[in-house]
Amino acid sequence: MPKSCCAVGCSNNNVKDKKLSFHIFPMDPDRRTKWVNAVKRVEPDGSEWTPTHTTVLCGEHFLSGKNRF
Predict the structure, then answer these.
(1) What's the pTM?
(2) 44: pLDDT strictly greater than 60
């Protein structure tokens, strides 16, 4: 199944670049909140954006190459 990065302005997907890693949002509430805040995304109506169980973030958005901010 194709995966596309949820970061605003990022067009990375696993079809275009098979070597790029994709990370699902953590289930731990504290870590999940940190990821959501780091993505800085909002819904079109201005409300808070919430990732789904299939939302992913590509590895290019992690400083250390690991899935932690």
Answers:
(1) 0.81
(2) yes
